[in-house]
Amino acid sequence: MRPNILLIYTDQQRYDTIGAMGNPHIQTPNLDRLMNEGVAFHHATTPSPVCMANRWSLHTGQWTTTHQCYSNHHAGIRPPTDIPKMLHQAGYLTGLSGKNHTFLTEDDMDYWDDKPSLPEHPEWYTWLEWVESSKRDYPRLAEVPVPTSITGEHACTQSAIHFMDTHKDGDKPFFLWLSYLYPHTPFEAPEPYFSMYKDLSPPQVEPDGLDDKPFRQQFHQHNTNAIIPFSDEQIALMRQVYYGMVTMIDDEIGKLLDYLDEHNLTDNTLLIFTSDHGDYQGDHGLITKSPAMYDCLVRVPMIVRWKGHIDSGRVDDRFASHIDFMPTFAEVAQIDTPEQAQGISLVRCLTDKGDGEPIRPFAICEYGVPEDPYTQARLVAEELQETTYANPGNPKLSWEGNPVSLAGRFRMIRTHDWKYVHYEDGDTNELYDLNADPYELVNLWNQPEYSDIQADLQRQLTSWLASIQTKTEN
User: Mean pLDDT for the chain?
Assistant: First the structure.
């Protein structure tokens, strides 16, 4: 019997925000439960550290080099199929509850609710009015003035339950993509979540700044500080509210798990929880996301549960990626994987007690637009050295898609011990010893004693890229 597939997706949630994965400060009892009942991939990695590019990769099974959605502001090439289309053609009922931010439209799903709302209720309008009145008050760092049950995140949960309730007794399995906004900016939460956390550890910051890091990081830091300067007190509050947002979503997930149990859907539902990418949260003196490949951005939570069919209570150390979802879903749906897919099915990893073959020998992540990168000299020559870039939709928000930060492709290759980031056309590359420097504060690039390691990682990255481009051309 083919299982239902429930993909629960948060936005901008760091890999290190789950209690059972080693964070003693955060409360995530429902994600902890999923871990105890399934397999968690400790080194899962996003194909790209921003929303839209990653979501294209997830739904197409392709690297960004192939589908060419390079950022949140550069749409790519829609391939012949995608996960909802593939599963619909295989006889699944398909649905979206929550944020889309992909090429998909309502014509691509049987059920489409990309802006869930709640039934008529005065407090629902209070919440909507508050959102409207404060949407330019960035970064907000505010208490939401209504209960959780009146928020948009709860509306997403109710939309998902409505979809499952409608289709649970049908003769077709379902695929549902439940896509939450939290813990994405703006940083806000209702009580008790807003005040739940106090005195968290400070961010990890380079003692001497970003001088030995790529120029685009330096510019991005300067641009952000010019538009939305954060005090130490604001950073501390941001980190506390962010944790509260994660716990709030965990409670929403608990409602879904209860629903699955109450309606005997748990054993026949393959459930995957993940997030599109992480968040700096002040690490490296930066906030929100891009343009870098630090673990706080590129590693993501990824938990798979299918009770009675896969291992339980196991943490897997292999390099899983969102591009692996298409072949995984194809295998459990008992259909052929589309030829366009560049990922690898994770099904074999779910029942081998972690002793099987690697998924891939390293993690890969890509970002940036294929054009000449900026340098300080180029900024001076083009009289842009004093320029700042705010988000076109909100002048109080720095723009992660600004042309300086985005110009030029760069790619990460990461093993369990080392990370190398290569910038096309000459920006400062990065090399980190992840055992000695897990927060990636000391850039070892071009230091003679690491030349062999650097050359080997560069060779592997070049070989990987050539294989991807060859497959695309064929």
Answer: 94
Per the confidence metrics, is the pTM higher than 0.85? yes
* Averaged pLDDT for residues 269-296: 96
Q: Which of 280, 285, 279, 283 is nearest to 222 (CA)?
A: 285
- Which residues lie below 8 Å from residue 320, measured CB to CB, with a gap of 6+? 41, 43, 44, 45, 302, 346, 349, 359
For residue 397, the model assigns a pLDDT of 82
Q: All domains of the chain, ordered by start, with CATH?
A: 4-360 (3.40.720.10)
Confidence of residue 151 (pLDDT cuts 50, 70, 90): very high
